[in-house]
């Protein structure tokens, strides 16, 4: 590799490809992979994927080990099958197989919103809770292949619910607890769940979240739901509907702790997770069992260099894929101790993360750039007053991390001794695809660096031509890896169309990226109409349709704009119906409307009244222009000659909202 490298302590802010941070010898010495091993694994996986992934399959437990390894085709109908003749149970590989060796080891440390509360659950205890819950689900009529929706806060019960579904072969669909009743209902209806698992209330930052009330509102529109299983989290008084609602603690007390694990095919579904795209409603990304578990285990071990006995903390919510793969399935498959955190980074104060790091002696810490940026603003003292001496590895996920935030994380939080793994991946990919390995990869602040073994990234231009060497283009993946999603639940054609039709034969990620002269990848962000707000993925079309459903709105166009803390903010152009006055009160009402329709994460940061939207003569909204105005880049608006009425643009520029 070319480039300048500097001894620790002499780095400076240098936002170029040349800023290289060397692998630390003490990390490389005991890491699962050093540079040579990474190189050898990458080559082996490329040369003979069948042999490489046959070997890696051994990292999880199988009921019948697979003999057919890879059967994938990105052309035609698109078929993705891994380990197809193997059988296993995901809950058994996360729990049962650890009982003999580490039954009394802590599997989950739960840290409550209130700093005075925590709970430690051993593998043996978790196994028993999962088995009992699995029997409760059976008693509610849940069978193999049925869908169960989970709408829970960050409590141990969320992991228990997921694993209990897996144990009996039911497919879970976790819906983030911040979503509205409408969003929850849409996700239940799409997959036809028969049981919903929720809680009385959630807790976050000292406030309560009315989960059961939201669930009741959602279920009113979901005739497939036969039962609602209700966890007791706050003990808040919530109405229970006789015959439908079941109190989880009471049902558990009556359930047997014996529940054999269902023998599932490797390609049987494990879970559905809804994710936003550039058009239409959120899609149900379907992940299956064998390949997903191998990928979760493989990536968790190598990317975080997880060593036995270490305490590992991923701050995500189980409502997102990060929580699925890197709080629950990956760590538990590897027999790790994983932390589940109910709270938020700034409650009771901006030192909470580091207080928890010290409290539980966390070795590996994985969070999102938006949290890093928010904490960076609060000043170093919140960090430095805690010791953080247990920290060994730091991770980042969810959106591009700007070099400034990266360097703060490295210098202030990690005191330059902790490698940072900037992990690029997606709901669709099941696990990390591009990331440094702590003992192998020289780091560059802001770069996700290099692909993991088995991952073949490619950059293509707008015409689909493959770009070689240093280049910038659309990020595609040339061949399948075991953790890849298999289909969109109930709509395989949408799967094929969304990911494999833009550049035939390639998986198109929706992201843009630059590859530097060292072959390092720098993700530049989405190139489609998806925006990333505080690491939460949102389709602009969803926010537009929520706005357009308001009785006073004629039309809306939504774009992302650069936001110091959130990465991207939501900027909405709203055209009101004839005769409606644009007022400050109406602006507030529309923000509240979107919160209610989708959830707080979709709240617009800025609303600009737009007497008209810039459209082509064929009626297509020119988002390129709207994005530039929102970003206050009104100098080079580019070619506006194809607009039906170019005067519209001038008017929008003049009245730009100060968001
Ligand atoms: C999108 C996927 C990955 C789990 C959480 C988000 C963006 C994710 C990075 C990163 C730059 C990143 C991409 C991607 N993204 N990680 N390290 N650097 N961008 O999963 O909700 O499916 O969103 O998040 O744009 O496409 P998701």
From TrEMBL:
Pfam families: ACAS_N, AMP-binding, AMP-binding_C. It catalyses: acetate + ATP + CoA = acetyl-CoA + AMP + diphosphate. Residues 542-620 form the AMP-binding enzyme C-terminal domain. GO terms for molecular function: acetate-CoA ligase activity; AMP binding; ATP binding; metal ion binding. Its cofactor is Mg(2+). Residues 38-94 form the Acetyl-coenzyme A synthetase N-terminal domain. Mg(2+) binds at residues 550, 553. GO terms for cellular component: cytosol. The modification N6-acetyllysine is found at residue 620. CoA binds at residues 204-207, 322, 346, 534, 595. Keywords: Acetylation, ATP-binding, Ligase, Magnesium, Metal-binding, Nucleotide-binding. ATP binds at residues 398-400, 422-427, 511, 526, 537. Acetylated. Deacetylation by the SIR2-homolog deacetylase activates the enzyme. Residues 96-479 form the AMP-dependent synthetase/ligase domain. The keyword Glycoprotein does not apply. The keyword Acetylation applies. Its EC number is 6.2.1.1. One of its GO terms (biological process) is acetyl-CoA biosynthetic process from acetate. Catalyzes the conversion of acetate into acetyl-CoA (AcCoA), an essential intermediate at the junction of anabolic and catabolic pathways. AcsA undergoes a two-step reaction. In the first half reaction, AcsA combines acetate with ATP to form acetyl-adenylate (AcAMP) intermediate. In the second half reaction, it can then transfer the acetyl group from AcAMP to the sulfhydryl group of CoA, forming the product AcCoA. Belongs to the ATP-dependent AMP-binding enzyme family. NCBIfam families: Ac_CoA_lig_AcsA (TIGR02188), PRK00174.1 (NF001208). This is Acetyl-coenzyme A synthetase. The gene is acsA.
């Amino acid at each position: 590799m070319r480039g300048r490298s500097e001894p620790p302590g002499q780095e400076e802010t240098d936002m170029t490809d040349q800023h290289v941070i060397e692998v630390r010898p003490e990390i490389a010495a005991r890491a699962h992979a050093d540079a040579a091993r990474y190189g050898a694994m990458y080559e082996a996986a490329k040369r003979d994927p069948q042999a490489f992934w046959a070997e890696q399959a051994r990292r999880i437990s199988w009921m019948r080990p697979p003999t057919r390894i890879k059967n994938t085709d990105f052309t035609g109908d698109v078929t993705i099958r891994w380990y197809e003749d193997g059988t296993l149970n995901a809950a058994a590989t996360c729990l049962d197989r650890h009982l003999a060796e580490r039954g009394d080891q802590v599997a989950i440390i739960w840290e409550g919103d209130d700093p005075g509360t925590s709970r430690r659950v051993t593998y043996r205890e978790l196994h028993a809770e999962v088995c009992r819950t699995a029997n409760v689900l059976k008693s509610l009529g849940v069978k193999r292949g049925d869908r169960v929706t989970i709408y829970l806060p960050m409590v141990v019960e969320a992991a228990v619910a997921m694993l209990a579904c897996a144990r009996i072969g039911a497919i879970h669909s976790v819906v983030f607890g911040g979503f509205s009743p409408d969003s929850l209902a849409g996700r239940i209806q799409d997959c036809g769940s028969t049981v919903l698992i929720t809680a009385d209330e959630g807790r976050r930052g000292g406030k309560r979240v009315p989960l059961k009330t939201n669930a009741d509102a959602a279920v009113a529109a979901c005739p497939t739901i036969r039962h609602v299983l209700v966890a007791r989290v706050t003990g808040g008084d919530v109405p229970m509907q006789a015959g439908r609602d079941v109190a989880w603690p009471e049902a558990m007390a009556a359930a047997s702790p014996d529940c054999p694990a269902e023998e599932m095919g490797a390609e049987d579904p494990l879970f559905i997770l809804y994710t936003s795209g550039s058009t239409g409603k959120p899609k149900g990304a379907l992940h299956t069992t064998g390949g997903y578990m191998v990928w979760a285990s493989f990536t968790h071990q190598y990317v975080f260099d997880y060593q036995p006995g270490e305490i590992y903390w991923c701050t995500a919510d189980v409502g997102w894929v990060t929580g699925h793969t890197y709080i629950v399935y990956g760590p538990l498959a590897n027999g790790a101790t994983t932390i589940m955190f109910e709270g938020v980074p700034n409650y009771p104060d901006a030192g909470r993360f580091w207080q928890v790091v010290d409290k539980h002696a966390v070795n590996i810490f994985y969070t999102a750039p938006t949290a890093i940026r928010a904490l960076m603003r609060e000043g170093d003292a919140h960090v430095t007053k805690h010791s953080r001496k247990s920290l060994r590895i730091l991770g980042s996920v969810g959106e591009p991390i700007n070099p400034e935030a990266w360097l703060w994380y490295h210098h202030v939080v990690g005191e330059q001794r902790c490698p940072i793994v900037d992990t690029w991946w997606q709901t669709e990919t099941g696990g990390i695809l591009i990331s440094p390995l702590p003992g192998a990869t020289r780091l560059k602040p802001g770069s996700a660096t290099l692909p993991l073994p088995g991952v073949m990234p490619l950059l293509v231009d707008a015409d689909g031509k493959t770009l070689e060497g240093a280049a910038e283009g659309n990020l595609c993946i040339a061949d399948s890896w075991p953790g890849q999603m298999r289909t969109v639940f109930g709509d395989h054609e949408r799967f094929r169309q969304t990911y494999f039709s833009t550049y035939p034969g390639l998986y198109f990620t929706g992201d843009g990226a630059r590859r530097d002269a060292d072959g390092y990848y720098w993700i530049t962000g989405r190139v489609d109409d998806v925006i990333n707000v505080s690491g939460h993925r949102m389709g602009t079309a969803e926010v537009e349709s929520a706005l357009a459903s308001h009785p006073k709105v004629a039309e809306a166009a939504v774009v992302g704009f650069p936001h110091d803390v959130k990465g991207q903010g939501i900027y909405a152009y709203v055209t009101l119906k004839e005769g409606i006055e644009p007022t400050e009160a109406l602006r507030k009402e529309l923000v509240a409307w979107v919160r209610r329709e989708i959830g707080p994460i979709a709240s617009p940061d800025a609303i600009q009244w737009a007497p008209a939207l810039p459209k082509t003569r064929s009626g297509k909204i020119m988002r390129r222009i709207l994005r530039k105005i929102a970003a206050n880049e009104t100098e080079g608006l580019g070619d506006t000659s194809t607009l039906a009425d170019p005067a519209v643009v001038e008017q929008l520029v003049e009245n730009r909202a100060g968001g």
